[in-house]
Amino acid sequence: MIRVVKGNFLSAGRGLLLAPGNGVVRADGLLTMGAGAAKALARAYPHLPRVFGRMARSEPRMGNWHLYGLLVIQVAPGLSAGLFQTKGDWRNQADLSLIAYSARRLAEWLRNNPGQEAHLAFPGVGLGGLEEEEVLGVLEPILGDLPVTLYKQ
């Protein structure tokens, strides 16, 4: 069962820190990370929008956005940061099928990185416009047996 706690995902300080993200790469090459948890992650690690923009561009293009599901880089020993894609375009509501795709990518990453745990700002809610129960209904079957903690503000 996925653990849900109150707090800030950035406070975990270890493992994989994940913010919900979108697939829009701006003309200057930066991935759009201008609001919510993604903005907090970009403030904590200012190089991430450029790195993630480069990574996203190597993934399939879906109109004006890129489909990546999960982007991860190591930012310090024992600490990685990433984006868990919930939207194509940042202007749109979060998409449950995209959340499922991203959850499958995260499950694969966790299985390939034993001993790691993911600390994820609750995806799809807030600026994503979805209800917690519907998001959990998608995440639980995919990530329920893995070390994942969701953080609610």
Structure description:
- The protein is α/β, with parallel strands linked by helices.
- The longest helix has 17 residues.
- It starts with a strand and ends with a strand.
- The protein is built from four helices and eight strands.
SSE blueprint and pairings:
Elements: E1 3-6, E2 15-21, H1 36-44, H2 48-57, E3 61-62, E4 65-66, E5 70-76, E6 79-85, H3 96-112, E7 118-121, H4 132-143, E8 148-152
Parallel strand pairs: 1-8, 2-6, 2-7, 7-8
Antiparallel strand pairs: 3-4, 5-6
Along the chain, the helix and strand elements come as EEHHEEEEHEHE
Number of helices: 4
Q: Please count the beta strands (DSSP E, at least 2 residues each).
A: 8
Approximate helicity band: 25-40%
- The percentage of residues in β strands lies in 15-25%
CATH topology: Leucine Aminopeptidase, subunit E, domain 1
* CATH H-level superfamily: Leucine Aminopeptidase, subunit E, domain 1
Largest sheet: 6 strands, mixed
Give the total of domains.
Answer: 1
Shape: globular
Question: What is the gyration radius calculated from CA atoms?
Answer: 14 Å
Widest β-sheet, arrangement of strands: 1-8-7-2-6-5
Structural class by secondary-structure content:
alpha/beta
| Low-pLDDT runs | none
Please report the distance between the alpha carbons of the first and last residues: 20 Å
Which whole number gives the mean pLDDT?
Answer: 96
Q: For the record, what CATH class applies?
A: Alpha Beta
CATH architecture grouping: 3-Layer(aba) Sandwich
